[in-house]
Amino acid sequence: MYRLLFIFTLCICPFFAQAQNVLSKLEKEYDHASKNTTEQLNLAPKFATALFFHKFKSKSYQILETSIPIAAKQADGKYATILYAVQAMNYRLDNKEAESLKSLDMARMYSLKTSSNEAKGYFQYAKGWILIRNNKTADAVAAYLKAIDYYENSPTTSTLYGRFGNAAKELSTIYSNLNEYQLEEKYSKQFLLLASRQNDPNLIFDAYMRMGYVYEQKYAQNPSDTALRNKAEQYYLQSIATFNKNKEAMLNRSSLSYAAINLANLYTEFNRDRAMQYAQLANSVSLETGDAIHIASSFGILAELALQSKNYDLAKSYFLKASMEIEKSPVRDHNIELSILESLSRISEEQGNYKEALIYYKSYVDKYKSIYDQEKLDITKRLESQFDKERQEQKYIKLQLESDKKAQEIRLINILRAQREQVYNNLKLVEENQRERLKFSELESEKKEQQLRLAKLETKQKNNDISNYKKLLTFKEKINTYYIIFIFIFIVLIVLLLYAYKQRAKSMKQRDELHALAMEKEKQNSKISTLTALLEGQEQERGRLARDLHDGLGGLLSGTKLQLSSLDLHQSENIEDGISKSINQIDGAVEELRRVAHNLMPDLLMKYGLEAAIQEFATRMSNSALDIHTEFINYSNSIPEDKQLILYRIIQELVNNAIKHADTSEIIIQISEEENVLHLTVEDNGKGFDPASLDVRKTAGFHNIESRVQFLKGTMNITSELNIGTSIELQIPIH
User: Fold this and answer.
1) Residue-wise pLDDT tens digits, 477-488
2) Do the bridges between strand 715-721 and strand 725-733 make them parallel or antiparallel, or are there none, so unpaired?
3) What pLDDT sits at residue 14?
4) Which is deepest, 424, 480, 529, 703, by most CB within 10 Å?
């Protein structure tokens, strides 16, 4: 039962809770930095976190809400990233998941605006921290690894090692839960190294605890290796020594009870006195701090120690106290409650109080049924059977290991026998060696004769070496000659390549100049084409004006002349009637003259602008068979008069084209302004046409319109569908 309590304590132990004096110190530093924005933004995350875990949540949120807008105005997104990340973690601890995700997304956005790898790493750390609490372990591991990558590529700051260490600690905890013990040990050691570099006693304390738990797990897997147990004990003792040495700087008084619980749990198996010592220490400290889980854990260990001494009454009282503390805790673990009930039932049975044992056991069964359904019970039975099977396999493996051990002992005996035989053989070799020495003295004389022969051979070899050296010198001279020839050829090739490169560069420059001249010529041709089209439009306009004057005004004046010439001055009645008709004809001529003049240069356009002229044109062109609408949106009449006249002519041409060719009954003229661009749209509901078959150059009306649009530096888009209608859109820059 104490094992469950121990693990539960490890999992929920808070990672930060400020002592009151440290909190006051932070507040003074934060207030003192009010005139220095950078210093205050550096202190804000730590101060806000301290306030939050000291249950000053509203003030913590206030600090963040005050600091975040200031950080958001900074050119670099470093401070905003860290502050939003802290806010996201606080919201998640406060069970405000929607707000947490929103703040995390803001942290991500500002992390893209900063060059600080430490800030980017802190965002990834906060992301992993939230993901692991949302049961997304794989995604959390990926985020923590990204954080570590950023931290490894970050310059050293006053906070880097602490933040780096926290990421390593989180990874170590995750791999511990996944039974990946090698990775757990790797990141626990990294956490200890970083905590030492940061020189923060709180981090060093956590790192020692983490390492102690690593070796305790290893010892649990291999109980025969007491060296692992001793290492776990050593690290736990170092954590307590660190706490006692730095009491004033320690952030959490309950850390001492946390370490004492782990030590007491470790000593329970082999040193009852020390287990009792640290269990009582944990109990006194946890009662002082009011940490319900630590109180329950200490009572659980004391109960187990009492059971070892068969003091059932004391054990029962400890278990009941542990149960009461568990009920006080905001975080309940049903497995612990079940374990307590089972232990109480077992104690009552040992005491012979079977009625009480039955009551506790029924409570155990009722709670068990309330937690687990029948399917989970079946799973439990299956897992138990698998566990028994694995245990049998472990026994078989153990027997096999013992058999291997005996085989190794037999092999060792054989090796010793072989060694004795080797000693005997060595003695024989000594005797043979002595015989060989006698032979050696005989060989000495032969050796001297061989040395004389060798001296002669050495003399001969020296003569050969001198000959070979002369040949080598001759060969080197030839090689040097070849090198000189090769260098000369290489220089000639470089000169030729440089010459070819210059010629190529010169030809490319000439080609670029020719291309630039061709482009300039093309631009001139385009300008000439545009001006020609404008002149053609003007000629067509003059031709239309001449036709209007000849066919309209000329005809009326000729009719008036004939009417006046045919008057009989002797008949007064005919004279009055003729003069009346002539006056009517002159009125028509005047009206026709006004119409022609208006088409040539509308008065409304000159006096009131394009909007009034277009509206008057639409009203004049509308009739019972044709309805022309005009719409002006955000139009400010800021276009110069010469451009307004060209636009007026374009609209005239588009409307006339629609009337002549589209067989339309409704036309819409829409003009709007947006960001110094004039948008002109003329739509009709006529019979339409296929834009792909339209050749602007062969269609005089569209060619004139396109030329005017190009003159205005605008663009034109034609959309038309058969039996639906046509829409022509123009975009004209205003300035």
Assistant:
1) 888 888 899 999
2) antiparallel
3) 36
4) 703
